[in-house]
Every structure is written in C-alpha cells, then in structure tokens.
C-alpha cells in the first residue's frame, strides 16, 4: 500500500533536482550493450547507482567506465545469468555498492535461438526458457531481502518481454513462450510484494527495436553458450526484407510510425516506468512498439 510518506516524498521532489532515481541502486542485466547499456546510462544520468551485469566482462566494464567518467556511479559485475553462483554474487555486490540497499531490478538479459516447432531442439528450448524465465525468477528470489522491506523507499522490478510473447512469432516457439511467461511472474510479484512492501512490478514488451537481435543475421553477431556453441543472432536478410516490407517498397508498413525504435527510446520507456512519474502503475504489460499490433 502506498504510504502518505512516499506521496510526500514525491511531492517534495517534484522538480527532481538530483534526478528521478537519486539515491537508488539498480541492477540491469544484459547491460553491456544495446537497450541494457542505454538503460544503464539513463539511470545513472538520473542519479542511480547502476550495477552493469553482463556475460561479456569487457563490454560491461566499458559501460561502467563511461558512466563514471561522465560523473555517474556504476560498477560492472561480469557473469552468466544461468549460473546460480553468479546470481548470488550479483545481489551481494549490488547490495554492498548500494550501502545495503537495492531498489531496482531490470531483467533484460537474453537472446533468441530460433527454430520452427518441428525442428527446434531440446537444448534450444531449455536454454531460452532458462534464460528468460528461470534466471529472472532466481534473481528476484535472491534479491527478496532487499525488496521485502518497509523503509518507505521505492522498489521496482521490470521484466522485459516482447511482442513475440504477446502475439507469438513463427520460428520462435521457445522465445514466445518465455516472453509470455514473464508477464505472469510480473503480476505475481505485484500481488505478493505490493500490498505490504509497496513493490511495483511491470513488464515492458518491445516491438521492433534496432539491436543485434533484429539486425541482418549476415552481419555475423553471435552468442556463445556456456558449453561453447555459437548461436547466430539476427534475422536472415531475405526474411528481414519481407518482415520490414522493403521488398514492396512499404518499409515497416505494420508499424504506424513507419520505423523501428532505437535502443535509447526503448531504454527511456524503462526509465519512465521505474520513475516516480509512474508511481501508481503496477502489474502492467506496457507495449513499446511504435503502434505495432494495435
């Protein structure tokens, strides 16, 4: 239940002279690049202490270094979200960095490993479900002692979904199921931790955002699984041309804004939802799609 104390805090800082997230500590998974890195930068600009979590240590450190060089506050904690020990370490280091407190978790880490239903392998299936469902749950569970508190300070959890999770997508049965699943996790968090502790939990479902997951597969981006297998990322050029409508001269015809979103626009939506400006938005799935699927 929102307390009058919290409402007074919002009113007293209406102009947010120290930033929308001043005094808060945020974990952003998969923030070594793309949307996660932009969210880390925006959060830091708004006064948050940011924990940059990524499997690629060099990229994570570069993001943290850039934030610190710009006057913000960030640390990099490298590791694999499929490793239980890493999740425990991530929470521990975040709490130490935040002076014993964690205020925000953004479950953003993930990738696609596509295949049509009759050909998708158990490994493809299990890996994507583990990464997009089990890992976020384990991180939230590990961080529970820092969210189930009554200190009057805001607490927010954002689970990143996709239009694939809302509408399905050919070739993405694993990813679609996983991204649909996080909405249930979000609503459960809101119902369990909202009444007594005031925790807000929301899902943000992205449409076509310009990242390595929506770039041409021929660009060569890939992820290496823990056992050393390389997973190619992106959309085959021919399929991408059809999907984007370019072959008919109608680029992005299914998007009312007629363009994909940028990583900065996507990250700005995350910032908006965790900010005090959205203090009464809870348990929702917010589509950031440029109008796609309306």
Automatic annotation (TrEMBL):
Gene3D superfamilies: NAD(P)-binding Rossmann-like Domain
One family name in Pfam for this protein: adh_short
Reaction equations catalysed: a (3R)-hydroxyacyl-[ACP] + NADP(+) = a 3-oxoacyl-[ACP] + NADPH + H(+)
Keyword field contains Zinc: no
Classification via SUPFAM superfamilies: NAD(P)-binding Rossmann-fold domains (SSF51735)
Enzyme class: oxidoreductase
Transmembrane segments: none
Keywords for the protein's UniProt record, in alphabetical order: NADP
Keyword NADP carried by entry: yes
Recorded GO MF terms: 3-oxoacyl-[acyl-carrier-protein] reductase (NADPH) activity
UniProt EC number: 1.1.1.100
InterPro entries assigned: NAD(P)-bd_dom_sf, SDR, SDR_fam
Family: Belongs to the short-chain dehydrogenases/reductases (SDR) family.
Protein name: 3-oxoacyl-[acyl-carrier-protein] reductase
UniProt organism field: Lepidopterella palustris CBS 459.81
């Amino acid at each position: 239940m929102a307390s009058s104390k919290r409402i007074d805090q919002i009113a007293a800082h209406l102009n947010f002279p120290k930033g929308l997230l001043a005094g808060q500590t945020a974990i952003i998974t998969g923030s070594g690049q793309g949307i996660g890195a932009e969210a880390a930068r925006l959060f830091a600009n708004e006064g948050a202490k940011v924990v940059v979590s990524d499997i690629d240590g060099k990229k994570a450190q570069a993001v943290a270094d850039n934030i610190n060089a710009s006057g913000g506050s960030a640390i990099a904690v490298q590791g694999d979200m499929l490793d239980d020990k890493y999740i425990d370490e991530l929470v521990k280091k975040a709490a130490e960095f935040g002076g014993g407190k964690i205020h925000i978790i953004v479950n953003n880490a993930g990738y696609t490993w596509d295949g049509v239903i009759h050909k998708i392998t158990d490994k493809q299936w299990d890996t994507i479900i583990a990464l997009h469902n089990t890992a976020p749950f384990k991180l939230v569970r590990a961080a529970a002692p820092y969210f189930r508190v009554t200190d009057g300070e805001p607490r927010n959890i954002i689970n990143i979904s996709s239009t694939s999770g809302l509408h399905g997508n050919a070739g993405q049965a694993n990813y679609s199921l996983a991204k649909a699943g996080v909405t249930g996790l979000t609503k459960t968090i809101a119902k369990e931790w909202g009444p007594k502790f005031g925790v807000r939990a929301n899902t943000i479902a992205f449409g076509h955002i310009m990242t390595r997951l929506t770039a041409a597969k021929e660009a060569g981006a890939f992820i290496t699984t823990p056992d050393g297998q390389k997973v190619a990322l992106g959309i085959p050029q021919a399929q991408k041309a059809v999907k984007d409508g370019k072959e008919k001269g109608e680029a992005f015809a299914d998007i009312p804004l007629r363009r994909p979103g940028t990583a900065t626009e996507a990250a700005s939506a995350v910032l908006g939802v965790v900010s005090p400006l959205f203090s009464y938005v809870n348990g929702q799935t917010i589509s950031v799609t440029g109008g796609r699927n309306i």
